[in-house]
């Protein structure tokens, strides 16, 4: 599973929109729920999560390390 996500991150870094969609589809709902638990406002929680994904896309070329750290953070949120 970890290898699969690392492969997805590698493809996102190269600009693969389909891989980004896969990542988004797999984590968006869980991250929205988690964000809502903290923020207590559905629309703001969704905005926060959308901004996280926008940042992931924007930094896709900047640094592989940053993307890996974001993946680790997302995986931890998904597990909990």
What is Rg? 12 Å
* Largest β-sheet summary: none
Overall spatial form: globular
Q: Ends: how far apart?
A: 16 Å
Low-confidence stretches: none
Helix content: over 70%
- The string of secondary-structure elements, in order, is HHHH
Please provide the count of β strands.
0
Domain count: the total is 1
Q: Which structural class fits the helix and strand makeup?
A: mainly alpha
β-sheet strand percentage? under 5%
Tally of DSSP helical segments: 4
Short characterization:
This protein has 80 residues and is an all-alpha fold. It contains 4 helices and no strands.
Outline the secondary-structure elements.
Elements: H1 2-13, H2 17-39, H3 42-58, H4 64-79
Helix pairs in contact: 1-2, 1-4, 2-3
Verbal overview:
By secondary structure, the chain is mainly alpha-helical. It has one domain. It contains 4 helices and no strands. Helix 1 packs across helix 4 (64-79) and helix 2 (17-39) runs antiparallel to helix 3. It is globular, with a radius of gyration of 12 Å. The two termini are 16 Å apart. The model has no long low-confidence stretch (mean pLDDT 83).
Summary tags:
mainly alpha; 80 residues
């Amino acid at each position: 599973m970890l290898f699969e996500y690392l492969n997805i991150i590698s493809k996102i870094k190269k600009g693969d929109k389909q891989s980004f969609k896969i990542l988004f589809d797999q984590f968006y709902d869980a991250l929205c729920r988690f964000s809502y638990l903290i923020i207590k406002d559905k629309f703001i929680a969704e905005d926060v999560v959308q901004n996280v994904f926008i940042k992931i896309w924007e930094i896709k070329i900047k640094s592989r390390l940053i993307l890996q750290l974001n993946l680790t953070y997302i995986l931890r949120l998904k597990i909990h």
